[in-house]
């Protein structure tokens, strides 16, 4: 049996954005009022030892506000957990990408491990970045409670590592706006998924 020593990692996707229909928003894209309030609701009356955020405004702006309600919390804005760099697809409507570059866009969903964003990051580089960041985060804050506010792609990448599933399988997991899930991270580098959805 496992000893009752583990790191609790709560993963939250940012809320709804002001702009709609974009495949991947620009780093400075803000939350809508609904997106902000949804995050307030899901984190209400909860406390963590550590707050970690993607440096993108849709995550960072909320974490700065949340920190005011936390008691002596450590706050970090970590580039390891920013969204994948989708290059020229950033700020473009999803519908337009399907129309203009259907083959490249299909590869993202059908063979993500081989995908390289046009003028952007490869899936392999993105996955390695997230993996290294996750390992460092757990090592720094062993046996503490961590809230990581980040992006759907980052969360799926972490789930791919934690659940030992392929990138294409991870893409089948729906990660909605302001959705929270919890992982327990153990000293032997194992993980267990405690909840998927609201806590």
State the main characteristics:
199 residues, alpha/beta, Rossmann fold, 6-stranded mixed beta sheet, 6 strands, 17% strand
A few lines on this structure:
The protein has a single domain (about 5-195), classed as Phosphoglycerate mutase-like (Rossmann fold), CATH 3.40.50.1240.
Can you offer a commentary on this structure?
A hairpin with a 5-residue loop joins β5 and β6 (about 190-195). The protein contains 7 helices and 6 strands; from the N terminus they run βαβαβαααβααββ. It is of the alpha/beta class and about 200 residues long. The chain has helices spanning about 35-45, 55-65, 95-100, 100-110, 125-140, 150-160, 165-170, and strands at about 5-15, 50-55, 75, 145-150, 180-185, 190-195. The chain is globular. The model has no long low-confidence stretch (mean pLDDT about 95). The chain has a 6-stranded mixed sheet, with helices on both faces. Helix content is about 35%, strand content about 15%. α3 crosses α4 (about 100-110) and α5 crosses α6 (about 150-160). It has a single domain, classed as Rossmann fold (3-Layer(aba) Sandwich), CATH 3.40.50.
Secondary-structure content class? alpha/beta
Tell me the domain tally. Answer: 1
Examine the secondary-structure arrangement and name the CATH architecture: 3-Layer(aba) Sandwich
The total of helices stands at 7
Percentage of residues assigned to helices: 25-40%
Could you say which overall geometry the principal axes of the C-alpha atoms support? Answer: globular
Beta fraction: 15-25%
